[in-house]
Design brief:
Layout lengths: L2 H12 L5 H17 L7 H32 L5 H28 L5 E5 L7 E4 L5 E13 L7 E12 L16 E5 L2 E5 L3 E6 L3 E8 L2 E5 L5 E4 L4 E5 L4 E5 L6 H12 L7 E6 H12 L2 E4 L7 E5 L5 H12 L2 E5 L2 E5 L5
Parallel strand pairs: 4-5, 14-17
Antiparallel strand pairs: 1-3, 2-3, 3-4, 4-7, 5-6, 6-9, 7-8, 8-11, 9-10, 11-12, 13-15, 16-17
Helix pairs in contact: 1-4, 3-4
């Protein structure tokens, strides 16, 4: 997003002309930043630069506003001074808001390209690999909008239609024990927030459904007035006309129905990565196909059999599990992973 585009959103917001999506995006961003602290993690020199820029630009804004007030007074002497001063003050406050948002945006959000991918009813499921290693399976006539790179504190995408999500676990600082970086899906009136899990979102004419396969998911309406939490094999339903978000309780007697729905959600995807005494050659092919990589086995590893479940695991975790199961060493260069080990009889 360019400075000009960002300032236009600010201006439309101030003028009351912003779309519901722009209002939600901007207010969510400001709320998120206020919770973190706007100047957290900024060096002293950077703070001084921001202060100088804000000072000089605000001086210009104030002088411009004062000049406009004087000209307005000359042209319309009958208007009370109180209203003119108040109007100038409002302009200054709004300008300050826009300037702060602009400079903080530049620091935390370098230029990021937004990408869009669309599936069709004829193409079946369409796989999308995100920058964080997460996988999205678009179904039917659906559309996913996402950035080429996520920010340091948030992963956010927009979905129209239906998709199965496999979200990788990721932390703010990249360490194993760091604070988890949330993943947020905006879709047809609701916000689905997770840390690392798998779930299916399906939007229809009047309702949006969220079904959890693994992990824990928080679902809320876009205003944040309604919120539910879902665990595996639980479903949330948002009815847009009624503006009602509710958790659908599934009785134990409905286990067969749940299993059928689960099969329906994962159909046409490579979500199921359960191997029960399968040749490693076949497993390597399926792993490579899912993650868009090439897996090469040393000749003495081709006879190995593997029994493991890599479902809902990231590429790195999958490779760690393979190495442990086969007592192997894995090297990778770019998108090529080579598995070496003692071999199997």
């Amino acid at each position: 997003m360019t400075d000009e585009e960002f300032e236009k959103i600010i201006q439309r917001y101030n003028d009351g002309l912003a779309s519901p999506e722009e209002i939600y995006w901007l207010e969510s961003w400001l709320k998120h930043r206020s919770q973190e602290g706007l100047f957290q993690n900024i060096s002293p020199s950077e703070k001084e630069r921001i202060k100088r820029n804000l000072y000089h630009e605000m001086v210009g804004k104030i002088e411009s506003s004062q000049s406009s007030t004087i000209d307005l007074e000359r042209r319309r002497k009958r208007r009370p001074l109180f209203y003119m001063v108040r109007a100038a003050s409002v302009l200054i406050i709004l300008s300050l808001f826009g300037l702060i948002a602009k400079y903080v945006w530049q620091i935390y959000h370098p230029e990021v390209v937004t990408l869009e991918v669309q599936s069709s009813s004829d193409s079946g499921s369409k796989k999308v690999l995100l920058a964080d290693g997460s996988i999205v399976w678009l179904k039917g006539e659906s559309r996913l909008t996402y950035p080429s790179q996520f920010s340091d504190t948030m992963r956010m995408v927009t979905l129209e239609g239906e998709a199965l999500f496999e979200i990788s676990k990721q932390t703010m600082d990249g360490s194993e024990m760091g604070i988890r970086k949330p993943f947020v899906v905006l879709s047809a009136g609701i916000e689905t927030r997770v840390l690392g899990t798998s779930f299916n979102i399906r939007s229809r004419e009047n309702e949006t459904e969220v079904f959890v396969l693994t992990g824990k998911v928080a679902v809320s309406d876009t205003l944040g007035k309604q919120r539910i939490e879902l665990l595996p094999k639980e479903k949330g339903l948002f009815q847009r006309k009624e503006n009602l978000l509710q958790k659908m309780e599934l009785m134990p007697s409905n286990e067969g129905v749940v299993s059928t729905q689960l099969e329906e959600y994962v159909a046409g995807t490579e979500y199921d990565m359960h191997f029960d005494n399968v040749k490693m050659v076949e497993a390597a092919q399926r792993i490579g196909q899912k993650f868009n990589i090439k897996v090469v086995l040393s000749s003495n590893m081709e006879a190995c059999m593997i029994r493991a479940d890599f479902t809902d695991q990231s590429l790195d975790k999958t490779m760690d599990m393979v190495a442990e199961a086969l007592n192997a060493i894995i090297h990778h260069s770019g998108e090529v992973y080579t598995i070496n080990g003692p071999g199997c009889n």
